[in-house]
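Task: fold both queries, return tokens.
Query 1:
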Amino acid sequence: MKRLWIILLSLTCFKTFSQDTLKLALTDVEAIFLKNNALLLAQKYNIEASKAQIIQARLWDNPTFSGEQQIYNQETRTPLPLGNMGQRAFQIQQLFLLAGKRNKQIELAKINTEASEYNYYDLLRTLAIELRTNFYDTYFIIKSVAMYDEEILTFQKLLVAYEEQYGKGNIPLKEVIRLKAFLFSLKKEQNELRQQIIEKQSTLRTLLNTKETLFIAPKIDEKVLDSLGINDLTLAQLTATAFENRYDLKMQDASVRYEKENLLLQKAMATPDLRLGYSYDRNGSFIPNYHAITLQIDIPVFNKNQGNIKTSSFRIEAAQKTLEQAQTSLQNDVLSAFMKVQENNRLAQSIDSKFIRSFDTLIEGAVASYQKRNISLIEFVDFVESYKTSVVELNALKSDRMRSIEELNFVVGKKVL
């Protein structure tokens, strides 16, 4: 009965925030997130743009055409002479990239596309932890708000009864004032929690790209959360999984491969490209109707692309060092996240599940004892304060436990819990 009362209070809490309350499980929220999130959709377009660059890299350069036509024949005094006495010439050329430049440019475009895909999944990883932590935080804060609703309602009823008794001269004014002060304190603390919910709802709506009037009420089975197999995980297993699934690490590896391929391209750029063509001249050459093959190539005497080759070599070294740093950081992140999960889980398991239920029963007895004057106001308020603090801290602990679990999922790059 007590649990049902808290659930009803929670639903009432939802209505105070918004007209449109949507009760969703995490799987439902994640499905909406994948479908609607604007940043993810934008990154998908970036992937398609990168794929288009592969198409562009495969294209040959267009041939070059040039021509000339005599506009006036001075001997015959004929404008635009198009007959045998007129002069016209044209030339067409095609650029041929030598030393495999075209294939190397295609390979660079492919690596860029690969990096864009990695960037999408890393963005998904980053946004997903924000989504899940705000989802769990909202759920546990709402539970605390519901507890405050219960206490505020109890004290409001007590205050009405005690104001009536004060009017009859049965109790001193200081008790009424003390009750009012404690009631105000409860409302203020509850308001602070409500402000947190408002902020987290704003974040959830932004991530889900939904309308501003929607209130997302998390639907969670706490028994499932409590049964997560944290003790089955090992550090070695998690580290190996992270190296396999961290897309930011894959992006850095792609950066190393990109710089290596770019070095090959820069070395190839030292080889001049060839322009091969055909030329025709009707009357301007040493014979009429002159036909010729044209050939054009730079002579690599001064510029052999030395600077760009050296730059690419240094960029490879820089990319490799950055990759090494990322690998070290990953290992430390996994270790830190794993230790946090273990500590939070150990603390959560050390709390007797009957603790709060016992408090629920005792608080009802405390109210009755105070009304019968069996305990003083100070004792009663102190007991209620202890109850309130215990509930809020327990919910915060459960929220911290889920936050640490999601942080572990984040650093591993895969949902392991």
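Query 1 returned. Query 2:
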Amino acid sequence: MSDFVCLDQIDGTAEIMLKRPSKLNAVTAEMASALVDISRVVDDDPTVKVVLLHGEGSKAFCAGSDLNSLAQYPSLWAYRNRKEYSAAFRHLRKPLVAVLHGWSLGGGAEMALSADIRIAESNVKIGFPEIKRGWVGGGAATQLLPRIVGYGAAMKLLLTGDHIEASEAKRLGLVEEVVEIGQGLARGRAICSQLCEFRSVALEAMKSAVRASLSMPLEAGAQYENEMTTLCFAEGRHKDGIDEFFSRRR
């Protein structure tokens, strides 16, 4: 693990905190490796239903990759960033909620793109400045961002390297909610608490079916959804949900 990445569990929520506020939570090679390991731990833990990602401090969620680390360990960093690290959160089976505040740039913004729900505090600044440094990020922003905000908006952000603020991020659909400064973590926890009321198999099946819609033709996706429905019914506890529904109507 790493001294700069913290994992805690609150009931069914696994909270992952980037803990390097003096450096705007910039990710080192060591932190990247820890995030890969942690993502596997929480995804394999049957007591975890949902994952919450946030950053410590008041200035930044994550300012991206630590450039000193990148220069010191280029081969290790390239491997972890482009292979395992970039895919760590993207491949989570469990719902991922990200809370953004302050600077959320480069690799930090790319981590957030892998989230299923993004909450932003009103001081957030989101951007992908890699083009200004002469490279492509490697965290799948070129693939995820167009799916979230559309081709034109994605190209503008990626080609200019400019950052946007909370209101524009909300308008583009890059974040789902904007809250006041200091309220992001509480809101993220509230959402996670709500999701934890539901069955793990249903949460994972729902995420899988929706994600499939991004790559499958309509009819194939509909068939996959039916398979996920069958999976939920086969688990046997769907009757609890039906009974609860009717009990509330009495």
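Both queries returned. Flag for query 2: Residues 74 and 178 are 36 Å apart (CA to CA).
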